[in-house]
Amino acid sequence: MRPRSLFHSRGTLAELLSGRTNSFGLLRLLLATSVVVSHVYPLAWGHLDPLWKHSGEQTDLGKMAVIGFFVLSGFMITGSGRRTTVGRYAWHRAMRILPGLWGSLVVSTLVIMPFLYQWQHHTLDGFWSHPNGPETYLTGTWNTSLTGGWDVSGVIAEGVRRGTNFDGSVNGALWSLKYELLCYLVVGLLAAGGVLLRARRLVPLVTVALWGLILNDWIDAPGWRGIPGDMDSTLSVPLLGPLSIHFIVHLGFVFLLGATFQLYRERIAVHDGLALLSALAFLVTLRWGGVFVIGYPAFAYLLLWLATRLPGPFRKIGRKRDYSYGIYIYGFTVEQSLAMLGYARYGKLGFLGCALAGTVALAALSWHLIESPAMRLKDWTPGPISRLKARRGGGSGGAADGPEPGNVAAAPEHADPATSVSP
């Protein structure tokens, strides 16, 4: 590479993310795996991963993975909202998130938790009739609201009492799903109002407003590396339940940052020099403070730069088989189970190896048996609607869902790539 090429643009996001030639699949897989790695520490040893200490208690590896996923989701989901009808958009989002989630809830609640209860008590007596049993957990979690509590029949609480577990939830990673769904709802409303196509400047304006709130909180924080904002204030949203104002602002900011990159992709340069500066800014803020204000935008740019600049072989990963969502929805439960069964005795690397093996196996089953079949229904149209469109000359309703030029929300080949992961 010529030295001066570092200071020249490679092109725009619209030019370089014009089809399936991107590394979003790899990035999602790395982010999902990072969540599993991060959870090894609190679930089996009772303390956060090393990044928490090295960042001055600003963030940890799992939280940064969440930020990355919200950036990528903002970019890809906004593209989906721009190119499809509102009804089709909602159907796509439901088919990508809910079947896999419901499958994981059934497996964890009706298979894994009974097994662990039997292992603890040598009987299933009391498991199904427990006041906070499987039915309560399922009815309170199916919509991501988590209003049914975090435990099933006291299984995890018993593990905490025995000293094998350090977190009281069956699957604490599900906490951010409702924030993801809230962001999906916002994009749907913006699409319905024509904002994404005719008034796109509103999105960066809201993004800047949220950034201003984070900046103000950071200025008021007791130190440069303090966590800004009041994390106790909540907002109750129908169906989704109570939501933290802190996470609405922070996760909403990075999601809309990704949405802004999507809406202005023809103006955003993919520049190696800017990526280098972004990496430097991110590392500096991790070390000395300001990761929320400066580090988040820098990290967001780095992710999109990587999506365009990683070598060709990396772009094939996740194109046909996207296990990232499955890794997210199963990883926490697998690690809680292993901790309860005493696998911490194998050390962190041994525990991580067992956790990844179990998690990837369940993720693969989830993809092949649930997620991929569900995504094959993404272009399905109910008979009455299809006949109505046919009479009006609208066809079957699937034509409107073809990818538009410059849009990357198409990989894997037969599935929407936008997934949601959180620690």
TrEMBL record:
List residues of the Acyltransferase domain.
24-366
Organism of origin is Streptomyces kaniharaensis
Q: Which domain of life is it from?
A: Bacteria
Establish whether keyword Thylakoid is in the entry: no
**Name this protein carries in UniProt:** Acyltransferase
Q: Where is the signal peptide?
A: none
Question: GO molecular-function annotation terms?
Answer: acyltransferase activity, transferring groups other than amino-acyl groups
Q: Which InterPro entries match?
A: Acyl_transf_3_dom (IPR002656)
Keywords, in A-Z order: Acyltransferase, Membrane, Transferase, Transmembrane, Transmembrane helix
Annotated Pfam families: Acyl_transf_3
Region listing for Disordered, in residue ranges? 386-423
Listed transmembrane segments:
21-41, 61-79, 100-119, 179-197, 202-219, 239-261, 268-288, 349-370
